[in-house]
Amino acid sequence: METTGNTGSTGAPTDGGLFRFPATEPAPGAVHLPGHLGPAEQRELLDACRGWARPPAGLRTVRMPRGGEMSVRQVCLGWHWYPYGYARTVVDGDGAPVKPFPRWLGEWARRAVEAAYGEPCDVRYDVALVNFYGAGARMGMHRDEDERTDAPVVSFSLGDACVFRFGTTEGRGRPWRDVELRSGDAFVFGGPSRLAHHGVPRTLPGTAPPESGLRGRLNVTVRAL
Ligand SMILES: O=C(O)CCC(=O)C(=O)O
Ligand SMILES: [Fe+2]
């Protein structure tokens, strides 16, 4: 397990969050940016997620083609992702038009890519998946492969910390690197890691910043179709 980040073993900030740890690159093109979002941005994103979660086209349980259900609940922006494709309406839910992808979220994603790679980013991001992890929720190893572009994926984390498992492009199994993602962290994966397998084997309940009032974990994954 990576121990980047400014927290003790309980996950509680020991320095009020003033000290930011440097970026790490667990695989080529995969960059972890601890504390990328400051407290005000985390609040802004959390407030936005609370709005996006409301119906119509709100938070839903995703059913898999073979009959299982994802333990993570999800809402999409810009384009609606379902297993396995994208649509303009919630084809596997209430049928409502998907909520718009906000321009500012694209700017945030480009800023994270620039921070990760140290070069300008002009990607037109147009879709976000908002994943809510309640107690016990997890996400199995998978690839984000329903997009037509090779633009880097940008993920923002809020609330409880989690173990984010980052593997290879070849298969779901080892080798992998486990990275702890905490509230405010960004994770960018592009280039040779764009199609790497990744997942969330567990969250760390009770580690959300208390002032967020959030019980559980939120992840906002931004992509270009
Ligand atoms: O929750 C996360 O950090 C990862 C989410 C993810 O991999 C996805 O939505 O495809
Ligand atoms: Fe993913």
UniProtKB/TrEMBL annotation:
Read off the PROSITE patterns from this record: FE2OG_OXY
- UniProt entry keywords in alphabetical sequence: Dioxygenase, Iron, Metal-binding, Oxidoreductase
- Cofactor (UniProt): Fe(2+)
According to the entry, every stretch annotated as the Fe2OG dioxygenase domain falls at 124-225
Keyword flag Cytoplasm: no
Q: Which GO terms describe its biological process?
A: oxidative RNA demethylation
In alphabetical order, the GO MF annotations are: broad specificity oxidative DNA demethylase activity; ferrous iron binding; oxidative RNA demethylase activity
List positions binding Fe cation: 142, 144, 198
Sorted alphabetically, the Gene Ontology cellular component annotations on this record are: cytoplasm
> What does the record say about how the cofactor binds?
Binds 1 Fe(2+) ion per subunit.
Stretch list, region Disordered: 1-25
Origin superkingdom:
Bacteria
Which segments show compositional bias classed as Polar residues? 1-12
- Which Pfam families does this chain map to? 2OG-FeII_Oxy_2
Listed name of the protein: Alpha-ketoglutarate-dependent dioxygenase AlkB
Organism whose genome encodes this protein: Streptomyces taklimakanensis
